[in-house]
Amino acid sequence: MGERIKSYKDLRVFQNAFDAAMDIFHKTKEFPTEEKYSMVDQIRRSSRSVCVNLAEAWRKRRYRAAFIAKLSDVESEACETQVWIEFAKKCEYLEEKECDSLDDVYELIMGQIVNMINNADKWLIK
């Protein structure tokens, strides 16, 4: 807990989100061709957007409202990714166990984001 965070890359939530996005990238390589421009693009985009918006939030720490707004975007993208995971499960593109594991990761990520929002002042540049 005592480690110094110098960059968004040092955040556990970023590391969790990046690993999950890469997992989704690899898993979606096996999706049917007809899903390439719909489900595959969307789930990859939303999972990557979690990471990108975290990086943007990190740079907005001078302004509490902007920081929280960007973290809210992160939470929304994580939730969107969960919806795409549910579609992948219902369409039988991924095994239920894989989907449940990914869903759990995104629940963790959203919990970490909510914690950052609730403790925003701790993260702000003073």
Keywords, separated by commas or semicolons:
126 residues, mainly alpha, de novo design (two linked rop proteins), elongated
Report on the structure:
This protein has 126 residues and is mainly α. It has one domain (9-123): 23S rRNA-intervening sequence (de novo design (two linked rop proteins), Up-down Bundle). It is built from 5 helices and no strands. Helix 1 (12-28) runs antiparallel to helix 2 and helix 2 runs antiparallel to helix 3. The mean pLDDT is 96.
How do you describe this structure in short?
This protein is mainly alpha-helical and 126 residues long. It has one domain: de novo design (two linked rop proteins), CATH 1.20.1440.60. The chain has helices spanning 12-28, 36-59, 64-90, 96-118, 120-123.
Count of alpha and pi helical runs: 5
Q: What sort of overall outline do the alpha carbons produce when their principal axes are compared?
A: elongated
Give the total of beta strands. Answer: 0
- CATH hierarchy class name: Mainly Alpha
Note poorly predicted spans: none
Distance between the termini: 21 Å
